[in-house]
Amino acid sequence: MSGYDLVVRSRRTVTPDGERAASVAVRDGRIAAVGAYGDAIEAAEDIDLRDLALLPGLVDTHVHVNEPGRTHWEGFASATRAAAAGGVTTIVDMPLNSLPPTVTVDALDAKLRAADGQCHVDVGFWGGAIPGNVKDLRPLHDRGVHGFKCFLSPSGVEEFPPLSPSEVRQALTELAGFDGLMVVHAEDPALLAEPAGPTYREFVDSRPGAAERSAVEQVIRLGRETGARVHILHVSSADCLEPLAAAQAEGVRITAETCPHYLTLAAEQVPEGETAYKCCPPIRSAANRDRLWDGLAGGVLSCVVSDHSPAPADLKVPSFAAAWGGIASLQLGLPAVWTEASRRGHGLADVVRWMSTQPAAMAHISGKGGIKVGNDADLVAFDATAVNPVDAARLHHKNPVTPYHGHLLKGAVLTTWLRGRPTDGVPHGAFLLGEQ
Ligand SMILES: [Zn+2]
């Protein structure tokens, strides 16, 4: 074997067949060969990670970059630098909280102009489905968005209103015509309330698991009726697992994700006033968290993605009723999940399936999500045993606000390669636009 640009060897290479000793040879930005660990390979650069793990780059399909418009919350340069430092080589940007929200082709073009030249990892885009923009869905799809996000309850920003059930039906009918995907923030507004007071308990009580379950059941009904592909975002309540499992068994085209914070944090440990922990739906009990892990292990939940949704510290006032919701964790998802997954007996291959392979499949991102010949050479050297305390101020996130501050997390990303090149130099991320 000769003429490669790079070969990376590791005794813990995570391939689609599991973890094994292997060498990964790269040519022109793609994985050109996967061989035995000790194979003689002629390459311009030969890196031996020995017992450090080699993973495919993670695919985080739930990131709020917020640029243009709220760039002081997060921007493409800072978000993608954080992603790369966290082993994430592909993000898919949410259509809100940027201004304008990505609900028309013109708005998508404004976002592409804002992001141009700034991206350290590859970036795809979700469009938004809001009241009145059904006519924009097909043009956005044709322009290359990976699907559409909608809310069933207020989103928190007035420029991105929720859809009524009949509007969801109308949008799904439109999407079914071109096999588009709808990703849904599923909380039933009829079962949400204003928090009775500022405490965490009062906040959780205002957004009960029943609101999630009711909304999920509604999406299942509409998915079944229209035949459209649907995906439930950020499942927090394990009460959603039963209807999701039944719908999947029945053949409804529905998938679901959860997030690192629901898998690693618990309501019982949220310090009063620490609104870095506030997100919607909320972090629930430790017992609920155990059931989410069962849902992952059983495959009802297929993806673990960050829902990185940062805000400046001044919006995180110390009242859970008043603070802005959203957890910043893009750089920390891998060590957070690995810390808890390894404690619960899962391997790196499981984590890669949840955080790379299955998100790529869900969003129809080709050439990503696994170490196999023909895929982009998106690779991560990962020390699976290092334990480090999180210092929010040292993260690449624009705002040093995260509930993981001070937590001890296992696993450290040492090098990230995007299409065969390290990500710590000139930004060389590409936009992932195309026929989905
Ligand atoms: Zn989100």
**Beta fraction of the residues?**
15-25%
General form: globular
Order of helices and strands: EEEEEEHEHEEHEHEHHEHEHHEHHEEE
- Could you describe the largest sheet, including whether it forms a barrel? 8 strands, mixed
What's the total count of β strands?
17
Rg (C-alpha, Å): 21 Å
Q: What small molecules does the structure contain?
A: zinc ion
Q: Please give the alpha-carbon distance between the first and last residues.
A: 35 Å
pLDDT < 50 runs, ≥5 residues:
none
Q: How much is the average pLDDT?
A: 97
Helical amount = 25-40%
Number of helices: 11
Task: Give the helix/strand class.
Answer: alpha/beta
Short description:
The protein has 436 residues and is α/β, with parallel strands linked by helices. It contains 11 helices and 17 strands. Helix 10 (333-343) packs across helix 11 (348-362).
Can you describe this structure?
With 436 residues, the chain is α/β, with parallel strands linked by helices. 28% of the residues lie in helices and 23% in strands. The protein is built from 11 helices and 17 strands. The protein has helices at 76-85, 105-115, 134-143, 165-176, 200-206, 209-226, 241-250, 260-264, 286-298, 333-343, 348-362; strands at residues 4-15, 18-27, 30-35, 43-48, 53-56, 58-63, 88-93, 122-125, 127-128, 148-151, 181-185, 229-232, 254-258, 303-304, 379-389, 408-418, 421-422. Strands 1, 2, 3, 4, 5, 15, 16 and 17 form an 8-stranded mixed β-sheet that branches. A 6-stranded parallel β-sheet has the order 9-10-11-12-13-14. Strands 6-7-8 form a 3-stranded parallel β-sheet. Helix 4 crosses helix 6 (209-226) and helix 10 (333-343) crosses helix 11 (348-362). The longest helix is centred in the middle third of the chain and has 18 residues, at 209-226. It is globular, with a radius of gyration of 21 Å. The relative contact order is 0.17. The mean pLDDT is 97. Zinc ion (ZN) is lined by residues 62, 64, 94, 307, 309.
